Amino acid sequence: MSDDSSNSTSTGSDSFSETTTEGYGSRLGGSLIAALIGLILVPAAIVLLYWNEGRAVDAIRALDRGAKSIVEVMPAAVDPKVDGKLVHLTGTMQPGTPARDPVFGVSRDGLLRLSRKVEMFQWEEQSKSESHENVGGSKTTTTTYSYRKVWLDHPVDSSHFHGQGDHRNPSMPAQSQIFDGGNVQLGAYKVDTPVLSRLSEFVPVQQLSAPPPSYQAAGDGFYRGRDPAQPAIGDLKVSFGGISAQTVSVAAASAGGLLTVFRDSNGYTIALAEPGSVSAEALFTQEKKSESTMTWILRGVGFVLVLIGLVCISRPLTMLFAILPFLESIVGAGAFLAAVTLSVPITLVTIAVAWIVHRPLTGIILLVAAGLGMFLLGKIGPRRRQAGFIPGRA
Known about the structure:
The chain contains five helices and 18 strands. It is an alpha+beta fold. It has two domains: 5-58 and 294-387, no CATH class; 70-277, no CATH class. The strands form three sheets. Strands 1, 2, 5, 6, 7, 10, 11, 12 and 13 form a nine-stranded antiparallel sheet that branches. A five-stranded mixed barrel has the order 4-8-9-15-14. A two-stranded antiparallel ribbon has the order 16-17. The chain starts with a strand and ends in a 7-residue tail after the last helix.
C-alpha cells in the first residue's frame, strides 16, 4: 500500500505541473464517500425527473387554457371589463423616462432597456490531467496547469490558482448589468417589470456620453487602460446595448391598467412579449416550444445525474479489483455499462409514472413502450450471441 504524496515542477512562467500519488487506502475511502454521494444523487435525480414532468404538464395545460381564454384589447384606452383577465394587445411600447446607466451616464431618448457589458483582461487557469493506476491499487496523477490572458465578463478569483508567480487578478470595479426605463407604457397600459424583461434583443448603442474619469472612448464603448491595442491585466472594456421604443405584442394579465404576470389556476405564470405585431396564437406557440426545450434539457440532466449516481455507487466494487490495474479497468467498464443499462429504464419509468399521475393515458402508453423496449433489447442480446456461434462451423 502506497502513502499519498505529491510534488510539483515549474515548466515555465505560464505553466505548472503537479504530480500526486494516492494510496489504495485513500482511494478505497474515497470510493465509499462516492457511493454515499451516489445514494443521495440517484433519488435526487428521480425527484428532479418527476418534478420536471409535472412542471411540463402544468405548463402545457396553462398555456392551452390561456390560448383559449385570452381576450383581444385595444391599447388606446384601458378596458375595465377585462380587469383580471389574460389579454393580448399590440402597440407602441415606450418609456416615460429612458433607461440610463447611473455609473457611466449612458442613456438615449426612447430607451426601454439598456444593457451594460463589462469585460476585464484577466489571467485564466486551465488544467489537464493524466493518470495511471499502479500495481497494489495506488494511482498517480500528473496535472499541468497553464495560464493565459483573456477578456472575461466575470471576475476570476486567482487566489485559488495552483501555479506560482504573478498570475494574480485585481478586483473587478464594475459588473455587467441591465437597466430598465421608468413608467414604461404600451398605449394607455402601464407595463410591469416581468413583462418588460421578456424583451431581450439588445442592439449596440452608438451615441454615448463623454467617458467618465480614467476611461477613454474606444469603438462603441469605453476603455480603462493605457492602450486598447495592447491590453494589460486589469484593463476594462465596457460596451452597451439597448432596446428602443417600438411596436410590441404582449400577452399578460390586465390589473387596473397594468400589464403584469397572469397566474393560472395551477400556479403557472404567463407574461409574454415579442417585438413586432405578433398574434396571440404565435406567442403561445413560441412559449410552448420554449417549455418543450426546457423539459428535454431537464430530462437530459436527470438522466446524467442518475448515471453519475449509479457509477458512484459502483466505485467500491471497482476498487476491490484495483490491486491489479487491468482488472480495475475491466470491472470499471462493466460497471459503467451496467449503470447506463439501469439509467435508461429508471429515467423512462420515472417519466412514465409522472405522466400516469398527471395524464394517465399518455403515461400508461409510455410505460408500456418502455417495458416493450427493454423486453426487445433483452431478446436481441441472446439471439446475437446464438448467431455468433453455430455448431460444426469453424
